[in-house]
Write a structure and sequence with these properties.
Low-confidence stretches: none
Radius of gyration: 18 Å
Number of domains: 1
CATH class: Alpha Beta
Strand order of the largest sheet: 3-4-5-8-9-10-11
Mean pLDDT: 95
Structural class: alpha/beta
CATH superfamily: NADP-dependent oxidoreductase domain
CATH topology: TIM Barrel
Order of helices and strands: HEEEHEHEEEHEHEHEHEHHHH
Number of strands: 11
Length: 297
């Protein structure tokens, strides 16, 4: 039975999939620095099952989380998978034996990354795969070749949709000129709104926008969202937690925003889901519009 707060948040199209706007990002289920086994394996499995039991049907993962650790947990916890569960992954990175994140983004490596995801998850097709750009380079022939590798995988039935992650507006415009882009996954939250122009472009096109780090960078000293006096005050007034205010702000900002907050515990999972029931009034919107350090708008 779907949680009423999850239902209240609504749904949006992710390519051919219709998913709840509140999903789950599985990155934190790996060990520290997203490397190695989880701190509490039993709780990790229970979190995944609780997410799906609540009605969440959008799950975000990657083969290089662990590496392979998170996908193996997902498979153990959820296989055989519900028919409406959209599992989305990303490619273009790998981990070495010490946990460093390295590029793995040649066209043949992107294909190998998709196949590794399918194997470790135990599925035949992913709902979408994000091309995760790491080098900050401008779009050009290399980007076109990478995109072509994902188009080939989609045409062969390995993935349903193609997404882009960590991109510029120029990447998005070049991408949509070549093929359908079903989602964009960029850093975006109250404290960092530099991707606002990309969000607006996605909104105008009806493309899902999936902000990563919606509460700020985990454990980062510069993460001021959850301790900001305005956020804390609004949380008290609206009978919510600061995290729920930050997530509710994103849900309220645009109808095509899909959230994938991550957590290692069922308690935090429930807190995140209940953000779907938080309603911001005009006064709250005006206060949050003045949030400091929001970057380029």
């Amino acid at each position: 039975m779907t949680d009423p707060d999850l239902e209240a948040a609504g749904s949006f199209a992710l390519g051919r999939w219709q998913v709840k706007r509140l999903g789950y990002g599985a990155m934190q289920l790996a060990g520290d620095n997203v490397f190695g086994p989880p701190r509490d394996r039993d709780e990790a499995l229970l979190v995944l099952r609780a997410a799906v039991d609540s009605g969440i049907n959008h799950l975000d993962t990657a083969q290089y989380y662990g590496p392979g650790v998170v996908n193996a947990l997902i498979r153990e916890a959820l296989s055989p998978y519900p028919g409406d569960l959209a599992i989305v992954s990303k490619v273009a990175a790998r981990r070495d034996e010490r946990g460093a994140v390295l590029p793995y983004d040649e066209p043949d490596q992107l294909r190998a990354g998709i196949e590794e995801n399918l194997e470790t998850l135990g599925i035949e097709r992913l709902a979408a795969v994000n091309l995760r750009l790491m080098d900050g380079s401008a779009p050009g022939p290399r980007f076109d070749a990478q995109l072509a590798a994902l188009v080939a995988a989609r045409d062969e039935g390995l993935i349903d949709g193609i997404g882009l992650s960590n991109i510029s507006l120029e990447h998005l415009l070049r991408g949509v000129a070549q093929t359908e882009i079903v989602c964009v996954q960029n850093l975006f939250n109250l404290a960092d709104q530099r991707s606002l122009g990309i969000l607006e472009e996605c909104t105008s096109r009806g493309t899902a926008f999936v902000p990563f780090c919606p509460l700020g960078w985990p454990r980062a000293t510069q993460n001021t969202i959850l301790t900001d006096p305005t956020v804390v005050s609004l949380a008290t007034r609206l009978n919510a937690s600061p995290a729920q205010i930050a997530l509710a702000w994103l849900l309220d900002l645009a109808p095509n925003i899909l959230l994938i907050p991550g957590t290692r515990t069922r308690a935090h999972l429930a807190e995140n889901i209940h953000a779907g029931g938080v309603r911001l009034d005009d006064a709250a919107r005006a206060e949050l519009a003045q949030f400091p350090n929001a970057g380029a708008r």
